[in-house]
């Protein structure tokens, strides 16, 4: 499935910018996010760099710790 999504020309992809890692490190220190949850923060920083604020995820707990992201479950997203 990941390969199919990656190859899709209809799905817009976003990639980290040059300073995304540095911003994620600063945000991690400020928010007290470390370990595996830091990768969620890195994704959130990449999203912010591209103007994306809403994420549909099963991992609501970790993403709720990030103030600039609006996490939604699949059930919540389907009612939007």
Task: Describe how the helices and strands are arranged.
Blueprint (H helix, E strand, L loop, with lengths): L1 H6 L12 H12 L5 H13 L4 E3 L3 H4 L6 E3 L1 H5 L2
Helix pairs in contact: 2-3
Work out the number of β strands.
Answer: 2
| Annotation field: number of helices | 5
Parts with pLDDT < 50 across at least 5 consecutive residues: none
Strand portion, in percent? Answer: 5-15%
Helix content: 40-55%
Spatial strand sequence of the major β-sheet: 1-2
* Ends distance: 25 Å
Order of helices and strands: HHHEHEH
Structural overview:
- There is one protein chain.
- By secondary structure, the chain is mainly alpha-helical.
- It has one domain (19-78).
- The chain has 5 helices and 2 strands, in the order αααβαβα.
- The protein has helices at residues 2-7, 20-31, 37-49, 60-63, 74-78, and strands at residues 54-56, 70-72.
- A two-stranded parallel ribbon has the order 1-2.
- α2 (20-31) packs across α3.
- The chain is globular, with a radius of gyration of 13 Å.
- The mean pLDDT is 95.
């Amino acid at each position: 499935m990941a390969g199919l999504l990656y190859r899709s020309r209809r799905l817009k992809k976003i990639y980290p910018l040059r300073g995304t890692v540095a911003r994620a490190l600063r945000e991690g220190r400020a928010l007290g996010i470390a370990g595996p949850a830091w990768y969620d923060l890195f994704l959130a920083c990449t999203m912010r760099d591209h103007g994306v604020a809403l994420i549909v995820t099963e991992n609501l707990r970790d993403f709720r710790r990030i103030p600039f992201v609006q996490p939604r479950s699949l059930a919540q997203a389907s009612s939007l």
